[in-house]
Amino acid sequence: MQMPEGLTPEKAEEIQERLGPALEQVSEYVVRTRNLRKTYQMGKVLVGALRGVDLDIKRGEYISIMGPSGSGKSTLFNMIGGLDKPTEGSVYINEVDLAQLDAYELAWLRCRTIGYIFQTFNLIPVMTALENVTLPMIFAGVPEDDRKERGIELLRRVGLGDRLHHKPAELSGGQQQRVAIARAFANDPSIILADEPTGNLDLKTGKEIIGLLKELNEEKGVTVISATHDLKMIDVSDRVIWIRDGVIARIEERSKLQVEAALAVEDALIEEGGNSQ
User: Fold this and answer.
1) How far is CA 27 from CA 23, 171, 223, 227, 240, in A?
2) Domain span holding position 267
């Protein structure tokens, strides 16, 4: 999220002039990947984490990326977020090819287009909730008064209007994740990337966080992409993308998942009824 050292106001203005109009264009797909491949060198062995992933994600969708550990879902997540570079292939954010951006341009795009939510919250311990939320706005050049007003508004929206000046150590895990969610929305992004957002939370709190993300997805029309093991995500996802061995194994619509779940329950009831006779 931090801007690279050496980014002058003149360079920032140049990037704004180049990328601003492209990002303001409204296309059907907010994320596209083409023949996405990532290979790691493990000693003398080459390991393919992603092996040719083609994916289109529509504006405003709630997507869950699921798969076992080592399947490639976190690698795909990092590629979409511009946190790692592919060995081959392309990632397009609002039709901008990330591979064509230099370090300054990529940081500029991430800061204004993508909000990140992490399993471990990644809050700065010495900063208050309000200071954590407004930090990305500093990198985006938002004036101080506007930062404070928007930060307070976001914290109130996530239910922490009475915790503005509390530091992370003074907050529960669920409250810290709410601060992280508010921070992710700081610069009004078009994409929210949530990496195991319920992984460090208890069942009840995790369900509340999932519900909050879905509410914000619908309110703001933001695209939510979550890499997760949490099957509760299926209830709010428009589509579930299953990754296995570095490729997309299948993509399922929520309506189909709901029908399959209903049929499974029906089959279980029929079997239970048959066994009781």
Assistant:
1) 9, 39, 13, 24, 22
2) 1-19+28-114+230-271
Q: Is residue 69 part of a domain?
A: yes
Q: Which residues contact 201 (CB under 8 A, 6 or more apart)?
A: 173, 174, 177, 209
pLDDT digits (tens, 9 = 90+) for 169-186: 999 999 999 999 999 999
Residue 42 lies in a domain: yes
CA distance 259 to 238: 14
Does 58 map to a domain?
Answer: yes
What is the count of structural domains for the chain? 1
Flag whether the pTM goes above 0.90: no
Bridging pattern class, strands 247-253 and 239-244: antiparallel
Alpha carbon distance 117, 136 (integer Å): 13
Band (pLDDT 50/70/90 cuts) for residue 113 is very high
Q: How far is CA 18 from CA 25, 70, 96, 118, 186, in A?
A: 13, 37, 11, 30, 23
